[in-house]
Amino acid sequence: MFNLRYPGGIWLILAGHILSQFTLALATDPQRCVIKRTEDPEVDDSTAILHTVKKCSRNSIIEFTPGNYSLFTPVSFLGLDNVTFLLNGNIILPSNITRVQVEINSTLNQPATYAIPWIYIQGTNVQVIGSESFEFGRFYSFGQQWWDLGIRTLRPHLATFNVTNGVLKNLKIIKPIAWGWSIPGQNIHISNHFVDAKPDNATRDDTISFPFNTDGFNLSGKNITVDGYYGHNGDDCVSVINGARDIVAKNGYCGFSSHGLSIGSLGRDGAVHTVENVLFKKWTMDGAVYGARFKSWTGGRGYGMNIAWEDITLVNVSTGVFITQNYYDQDKGPKPPNPSNSSTKIINIAFRNFKGGLGTSWTDGSCISDPCWNYVPGLDEPKAVILDLYPDTATNITLKEINIQPFNNPGGTPNVICDPAALSEAEESTLGFKCANGPFIPA
Ligand SMILES: *[C@@H]1O[C@H](CO)[C@@H](O)[C@H](O)[C@H]1NC(C)=O
Ligand SMILES: *[C@@H]1O[C@H](CO)[C@@H](O)[C@H](O)[C@H]1NC(C)=O
Ligand SMILES: *[C@@H]1O[C@H](CO)[C@@H](O)[C@H](O)[C@H]1NC(C)=O
Ligand SMILES: *[C@@H]1O[C@H](CO)[C@@H](O)[C@H](O)[C@H]1NC(C)=O
Ligand SMILES: *[C@@H]1O[C@H](CO)[C@@H](O)[C@H](O)[C@H]1NC(C)=O
Ligand SMILES: *[C@@H]1O[C@H](CO)[C@@H](O)[C@H](O)[C@H]1NC(C)=O
Ligand SMILES: *[C@@H]1O[C@H](CO)[C@@H](O)[C@H](O)[C@H]1NC(C)=O
Ligand SMILES: *[C@@H]1O[C@H](CO)[C@@H](O)[C@H](O)[C@H]1NC(C)=O
Ligand SMILES: *[C@@H]1O[C@H](CO)[C@@H](O)[C@H](O)[C@H]1NC(C)=O
Ligand SMILES: *[C@@H]1O[C@H](CO)[C@@H](O)[C@H](O)[C@H]1NC(C)=O
Ligand SMILES: *[C@@H]1O[C@H](CO)[C@@H](O)[C@H](O)[C@H]1NC(C)=O
């Protein structure tokens, strides 16, 4: 089956040799579709939403009016073509945990690569524009109770945006259950994004109610810009994962206990994962476990190439600059063997203009095992830099204009963890600091 488009908005749909359908669309009036909303918060609006989106899946503006829409069933919007969603209302997920789990357990939602999204959007030229008003353009997921109970089974993430030529703007994510938006698409512009994944009754160091896995974005697509992010969460603000190319993430603030602006994880179970051309620029990391982070699993076989973090302000962070090529689940036993001595390669990675100060703790409330998931040998206090490299597999690492202070000590010198034996040849002369456990000494 294939579709032909003729000027004037006439669609011919041919199935085999038979002209099965013939529709006239209005070429002049853009199709504007308003989604009906029941005022009763107990009533699921999913069917009404799906119905309208199906009807208006081409050359349409689909409008949610100010007010709450109950989206109690996971939905997929597939094959969209030139559609703008005006989210002038809010989307409400079920507040009942069991209900969410039952839905996820039986969902017919489109598969994502890792876990199931509540909302799956696929198509070309798709925009999701939230209200200018701070009260609307929201997604309420009632994650707090999931964090309180530490439930991590049958947990959906909010949305997958698998679109070519896409826009996400002015969206507000309120208490997500797990991570927010996964972006496997291409040519995507995201702006003015807001994430509230901060528990109401816990600090960053509480192990109870910790909002683990509440990443803002998982980016695996191509040509994606995130410009303008403000959030509090308990995992990466932006995590750039396998397949990602040509990524810029800039002008953001990450609070509560962010796990950083991250590349990875890459290379789990020996996978060939690759990431290329990434720039993080102009971010403030407040209370974060990491400012900048590169994380690959022991035994990986891909690479991360041409990656930079620039103009990063640190406030009370645990580690400013962090690289590990040797990650494993430390709470699940000893490091798995790596008989082929492989590692995800690092090629051209730069950290420029970092300023600010470290906090008082090297970890946060997500540390619920001994050793902690984020422990590396020698880690007993906040550090300016940790390079946990696999020998001879990282080339052209540079740190420039690094001005990080210990907690509450503007004149002091912070410490670093770095093993010169793991550096590639001639790296020592271009690294930008002295690679040795001890004080940070620019070089
Ligand atoms: C895209 O849809 C809008 C209506 O939202 C319409 O005005 C416009 O002509 C469409 N663009 C194309 C290329 O068909
Ligand atoms: C929408 O739902 C949220 C979450 O339950 C609630 O806080 C808010 O008051 C509701 N807004 C409207 C306009 O009903
Ligand atoms: C929560 O959802 C489950 C599954 O749908 C249902 O059995 C249960 O009665 C609901 N609980 C409440 C308090 O509504
Ligand atoms: C999920 O579905 C499986 C298979 O239908 C069932 O055995 C299991 O009990 C379900 N789990 C939950 C939490 O609903
Ligand atoms: C995204 O859509 C493409 C087809 O357009 C498909 O091949 C791919 O598997 C989808 N990715 C995800 C993560 O859904
Ligand atoms: C990248 O995406 C933007 C939209 O965000 C688009 O304007 C631009 O043309 C794309 N660049 C390439 C090389 O495709
Ligand atoms: C937050 O409140 C919930 C619900 O009362 C409770 O289960 C949880 O333990 C509290 N968290 C903290 C850190 O006190
Ligand atoms: C997205 O982020 C979450 C939270 O860290 C992570 O568990 C998940 O594996 C990521 N998704 C993919 C496809 O890697
Ligand atoms: C850093 O944390 C300390 C102790 O919690 C606090 O007093 C201080 O205000 C924080 N600094 C900034 C700049 O927020
Ligand atoms: C891996 O490294 C070990 C220790 O250096 C060495 O004995 C072994 O031969 C190496 N294996 C391969 C496949 O290179
Ligand atoms: C090292 O990386 C920088 C970017 O950080 C790049 O400009 C430079 O060309 C690279 N050097 C080599 C020798 O590839």
From TrEMBL:
EC code(s) of this entry: 3.2.1.67
Record bears the keyword Repeat: yes
Entry-linked Pfam families: Glyco_hydro_28 (PF00295)
Tree of life domain: Eukaryota
Class in the EC hierarchy, top level: hydrolase
Protein's cellular compartments: Secreted
Signal peptide (from-to): 1-27
Keyword annotations from UniProtKB, A to Z: Cell wall biogenesis/degradation, Disulfide bond, Glycoprotein, Glycosidase, Hydrolase, Lyase, Repeat, Secreted, Signal
GO biological process, one term: cell wall organization
InterPro entries assigned: Glyco_hydro_28 (IPR000743), Pectin_lyas_fold (IPR012334), Pectin_lyase_fold/virulence (IPR011050)
GO cellular component: extracellular region
Keyword Cell wall biogenesis/degradation appears in the UniProt entry: yes
Catalytic function, reaction form: [(1->4)-alpha-D-galacturonosyl](n) + H2O = alpha-D-galacturonate + [(1->4)-alpha-D-galacturonosyl](n-1)
Function of the protein: Specific in hydrolyzing the terminal glycosidic bond of polygalacturonic acid and oligogalacturonates.
Protein family per UniProt: Belongs to the glycosyl hydrolase 28 family.
Name of the protein in its database record: galacturonan 1,4-alpha-galacturonidase
Protein's organism: Coprinopsis marcescibilis (Agaric fungus)
